[in-house]
Design brief:
Largest sheet of chain B: 5 strands, antiparallel
Strand content of chain B: 35-45%
CATH architecture of the largest domain in chain B: 2-Layer Sandwich
CATH topology of the largest domain in chain A: Rossmann fold
Shape of chain B: globular
Shape of chain A: globular
Structural class of chain A: alpha/beta
Number of strands of chain A: 9
Strand order of the largest sheet of chain B: 2-3-1-4-5
Distance between the termini of chain A: 14 Å
Number of domains of chain A: 2
Number of domains of chain B: 2
Oligomer: heterodimer
Number of helices of chain B: 2
CATH class of the largest domain in chain B: Alpha Beta
Strand content of chain A: 5-15%
Radius of gyration of chain A: 19 Å
Number of strands of chain B: 8
């Protein structure tokens, strides 16, 4: 049974197909509004999430399907000690496809190995969040018209930020890219991501702590939140949380065609005043995420012979 | 120092000097009731110094453990005092229930019934990563 746990589970050709499908859904939504009639998506969210869960649910509703939802480990059988494997087997009896978020890294893989329906990883701790990356890729392609030959700046928590790791992994498969890694010393990109994705493929990158110095070089500025839940030590979080705040002043140094992205939710790393700037693309990114999830649900249900 | 040759059993030879104890431990030899001899820092024409483990019975040995701890070690199977099989052990692609993931955020940290699975991620660096969370295995 085909599941999607991480972006490399999808070939470049499949990524292209998903983006093409998403574009077609945007152009002709009515053509897709009955595609999943009678089908059920189970959203199993054992960790707090608003946008990802709602995005999956909206995606399934817009395809004409239904949604079964579990939110919070406290309200599910997980609270009684049920394993992820047993949960996946059980939910497979009710649903045609599962989207799961879990605080433990690797939980989605365990679910996929035990479910008899496709599983989509909607985030497993700090590990992977592939559908966010799908949203990011579609946003970049729609805003810049291409996924190659770009200078991509990533700013904020590059150590624990799973969206950053997934995006670098995904984009490192395209040609002519250059990465600018902007973070405090304590939140630098882990060396294994640098080694596996950048050094091994000879992709040029620079590391800096100064956003203003490099913002003028960027095609894409991908801001991230310093996430409280990834820290064991509250003091470290408080010290680092306000490292970067993107303001209209800083935006003046950016190119006219800069595309500012953020996986959201933001706390204060992007000033609300930046929202009015036409280069702010983070709410478009949210919408693109729904279309890519629609495309992914369609692809997996078709492959599973359920459509 | 002399250790009697064995009649029926297994000799793990050409172990890099210093790796013998780790191998002894991971193979679970401290829990076996058959005679086992471990020789350390034995003179070797090939390696300079080497460790050797002699097991005086043909017990089941997890070759993956040997390939993980010390690829290049050889396993000799002895029957009736005659060498009947000689195996050169390579790094296994997958390790199951040999080492544990140390990442407290890994699903294996809270679901104890899951097998501990590691995959070879970089052969030149002898690097293994947890199948579930992709955390690198601690260096031996």
């Amino acid at each position: 049974m085909r599941s999607v746990i991480d972006v490399p589970d999808l070939s470049l050709q499949e990524l292209q197909q998903l983006m093409d499908t998403a574009e077609d859904i945007i152009a002709r939504p009515a053509a897709y509004s009955e595609c999943c009639r009678g089908k059920k998506l189970a959203t199993l969210f054992f960790e707090p999430s608003t946008r990802t869960r709602l995005s999956f649910e909206a995606a399934m509703y817009e395809l004409g399907g239904n949604v079964l939802s579990v939110t919070g480990a406290g309200t599910s059988s997980a609270a009684k000690g049920e394993s992820v494997a047993d949960t996946a087997k059980t939910v497979s009896c009710y649903a045609d496809i599962i989207a799961m978020r879990h605080p433990k890294e690797g939980a989605a893989l365990v679910a996929a190995r035990n479910a008899s329906v496709p599983v989509i990883n909607a985030g497993d701790g700090g590990h992977c969040h592939p559908t966010q990356t799908l949203a990011d890729l579609l946003t970049i392609r729609r805003e810049k018209g291409r996924l190659d030959g770009l200078t991509v700046g990533l700013c904020g928590d590059l150590k624990f930020g799973r969206t950053v790791h997934s995006l670098i992994t995904a984009m490192s498969r395209y040609e002519g890219l250059r990465f600018v890694l902007i973070s405090p010393e304590e939140l630098k990109l882990p060396s294994y991501v640098k080694n596996d994705c950048l050094k091994r493929k000879n992709i040029p990158y620079i590391q800096t702590t100064d956003l203003e110095q490099v913002i003028g070089d960027l095609d894409i500025l991908y801001m991230t939140r310093v996430q409280r839940e990834r820290f064991f030590n509250e003091e470290d979080y408080l010290r680092l949380k306000d490292s970067y705040i993107l303001t209209p002043e800083k935006m003046k140094k950016g190119r006219a065609d800069l595309c500012v992205m953020h996986p959201l939710p933001r706390v204060n790393e992007i000033s609300v005043a930046v929202d009015e700037d036409p280069r702010a693309c983070y709410f478009k990114q949210v919408l693109n995420g729904k279309y890519m999830r629609m495309a992914l649900i369609l692809m997996l249900l078709k492959e599973a012979g359920r459509l | 120092m002399n250790v009697d040759s064995i009649r029926d059993g297994i000799v793990i030879d050409h172990i890099t000097a210093g790796c013998g104890r780790k191998l002894y431990q991971l193979l679970g030899l401290e829990n076996t009731d058959v005679p086992v001899a471990m020789l350390t820092n034995v003179a070797s024409a090939k390696l300079g110094r080497k460790d050797i483990i002699k097991i005086d019975a043909e017990i089941e040995v997890n070759f993956d453990v040997i390939g993980y701890v010390d690829p290049g070690a050889t396993v000799n199977v002895i029957r009736n005092g005659v060498l009947v099989e000689k195996k050169q052990i390579d790094m296994p692609e997958t390790l199951v229930n040999v080492i544990r993931c140390k990442n407290p955020r890994c699903i294996t940290s809270c679901e104890q019934e899951l097998s501990q699975v590691f995959r070879l991620s970089d052969r030149t660096k002898k690097e293994y990563r947890c199948l579930y969370c992709e955390t690198k295995a601690a260096v031996l």
